[in-house]
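Re: that chain you flagged

S.,

Sorry for the slow reply, it's been a week of failed gels. I finally had a moment to sit down with the sequence you sent. For the record, here it is as I used it:
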Amino acid sequence: MNRYVAFDVETPNRLNNRMSAIGIAVIENGVITDETYSLVNPEQPFDLFNTMLTGISEESVVSSPIFPELWEKIAPIMESGILVAHNASFDMGVLRKCLNDYGISWRPAVKGVCTVLMGRSLLPGISHKLNDMCDYYDISLNHHRADSDSRACAEILLRYMEGGADPAKYIRTYRMD
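Prediction finished late last night. Pasting the structure tokens below so you have them in one place:
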């Protein structure tokens, strides 16, 4: 597989069952070829902590698409390669909960790569927080912004690949039902 779909979500509150933003960066044959970003109206209240962390508030998403509307546009991208996320259990979990909460049938399971787990194997003994990895590789980051975080995740994966790592060895199955 030469196509990876790195994505990152931001959430409106501590429930982590809806997204308020999603960023997607597509890697084809070792190059980032496409990027997508959207705010999402989660139809839920925002916690002040999440608003302060992400800069996203109820007011900023009022005219944004709700998840089912956005899913129609991003599903073809998400289906086009191996999903990649930094701390994939979180992002995959939020995606799964959104799909389930809105009654959207998708795949029962997806293949994915977690760049945190991959990094812990490849570079033991250092911090694998996204901002620390970006500092390590000198990658630009506007942290907790889904577009910047997804691009950073893609660039980290590319750095691992440039160092000789094969992402196929780190593919896991994530339940979506």
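What I noticed first: The helical segments are 48-54, 58-61, 67-78, 88-101, 115-122, 130-137, 146-162.

Talk soon,
D.
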